Amino acid sequence: MQVTILPGTINGTVTANPSKSAMQRAVAAALLSNGKSIIRNPGLSDDCLAALDVAEKLGAVVIRTEEHIEITGSGVHPRSNEINCGESGLGIRMFTPIASLSAQAITINGHGSLTTRPMNFFEEVLPQLDVKCSTFEGKLPLKIQGPLKAKNITIDGSLSSQFLTGLLMAYGAVAEEVTITVKDLKSKPYIALTLQLMEQFGVKVTEERFEKFHFGKKQAYKAGEYTVEGDWSGAAFLLVAAAVAGKAEVHHLNTHSAQSDKAILEALEKAGAGLLPGMFTMIVEKHQLNAFDFDATDCPDLFPPLVALAANCHGTSKILGVSRLAHKESDRGKTLQEEFGKLGITIDLHGDEMLVHGGTGIKGGLVHSHADHRIAMACAVAALTADGPVIIEKAEAINKSYPEFYDHLQKIGGVVKAGEPQGI
Ligand SMILES: O=C(O)C1=C[C@@H](OP(=O)(O)O)[C@@H](O)[C@H](O)C1
Ligand SMILES: C=C(OP(=O)(O)O)C(=O)O
């Protein structure tokens, strides 16, 4: 699907979409709880729907109503010997250790970019926990057979925090007096989010400097009511749109959230945007913007909106953490360089550093999302200050995390047209 975004001014109010990171974790915790959990403000992006499907296949009863989702869990009792995590990195890395809690042999699959993302971690780690595990040359499909035994273990956290999230969630159901030790953990705030969610579902883990995670007496997840927070990762695009092209008010954003991507506020502040934070609302408005330096190692999903911001800032912005992007839905450092290059913005990649030469003027043109939701959204934001329309190919990629994105962009004043521009 093609979408065309016209240059123009932003001015409007919108409510943030639900966080898929929070929603997926809540679905997993509800599956592991005994009894009925109610998830309010549920996310319905593709990654969230895949999580609900996996939870059902692993034994939960899921009922969707107009306002909320009920998940009745009783631990892992697979109804199928195959699960599919769609395109979700978090989904597969979280549900693999969870599915390993059962003694049943299970094949775990996915599609699209997930089939190219590394899964060797499981082959190295799960056998240490008495789980048989094989991959196809480090990639999907994964074949596992548990039951997982929670033991003292040391793992490498440098590739992705998602593997640790999966182990923590699974250990929460069975662990007793054991410690997970992690070396070189990246994306730490995502682990803070995992621990917070586990505690909300009744499981407490003692954490030391994000290196040691200790489980004391045996605990059990407790079913309950959970409201999914607004998503800072998706809202970052709207906040940048406001900073470069007008003004916007975004509701349902918790400034005390554990979500790593609320760090977009620091970058906006460094760039000189006008910020008016409330407890659950952010107002951003356009001011003169200057180049900024920002370390995105622990919030890698911010790279695409940061690049859209930097393209509008006078001077060269430096963003650290590019090596974290190689195994996302696309190789995002290179994808951003290629697609923003088509819009006249030069990006240099030097090791772990990205340099964005901004303020040189954004050109209209034809770009491709590479089936990566965050690339489609970054290009849409860049279009607002371009000298002509930007046509985005494979624009439906947004459905992975933020199906409401184009509607929300329109709500705050963006002009979005399906297909190629006509008579523009
Ligand atoms: O736990 C999560 O919800 C996520 C963790 C991050 O992955 P890494 O830990 O691989 O950086 C992030 O990029 C991803 O979009 C969501
Ligand atoms: C990388 C992402 O998600 P995941 O790893 O869960 O697929 C993302 O949402 O940008």
UniProtKB/TrEMBL annotation:
Any one Gene Ontology molecular-function term assigned to this protein's record: 3-phosphoshikimate 1-carboxyvinyltransferase activity
GO cellular component: cytoplasm
Subcellular location: Cytoplasm
One BP annotation, GO: chorismate biosynthetic process
Segments traversing the membrane: none
Keyword annotations from UniProtKB, A to Z: Amino-acid biosynthesis, Aromatic amino acid biosynthesis, Cytoplasm, Transferase
Residue numbers binding 3-phosphoshikimate: 20-21, 25, 160-162, 187, 301, 328
InterPro entries: Enolpyruvate_Tfrase_dom, Enolpyruvate_Tfrase_sf, EPSP_synthase, RNA3'P_cycl/enolpyr_Trfase_a/b
Enzyme Commission identifier(s): 2.5.1.19
Active site feature: 301 (proton acceptor)
Pathway info: Metabolic intermediate biosynthesis; chorismate biosynthesis; chorismate from D-erythrose 4-phosphate and phosphoenolpyruvate: step 6/7
Any Pfam family: EPSP_synthase
The protein's enzyme class: transferase
Domain named Enolpyruvate transferase: residues: 8-409
Residues bound to phosphoenolpyruvate: 20, 89, 117, 162, 332, 374, 400
Catalyzed reactions per annotation: 3-phosphoshikimate + phosphoenolpyruvate = 5-O-(1-carboxyvinyl)-3-phosphoshikimate + phosphate
Subunit composition and interactions: Monomer.
Biological role stated in the UniProt entry: Catalyzes the transfer of the enolpyruvyl moiety of phosphoenolpyruvate (PEP) to the 5-hydroxyl of shikimate-3-phosphate (S3P) to produce enolpyruvyl shikimate-3-phosphate and inorganic phosphate.
Family: Belongs to the EPSP synthase family.
HAMAP family recorded: EPSP_synth
The name this protein goes by in its record: 3-phosphoshikimate 1-carboxyvinyltransferase
Protein species of origin: Chitinophaga oryziterrae
Source lineage: Bacteria, Pseudomonadati, Bacteroidota, Chitinophagia, Chitinophagales
Gene: aroA
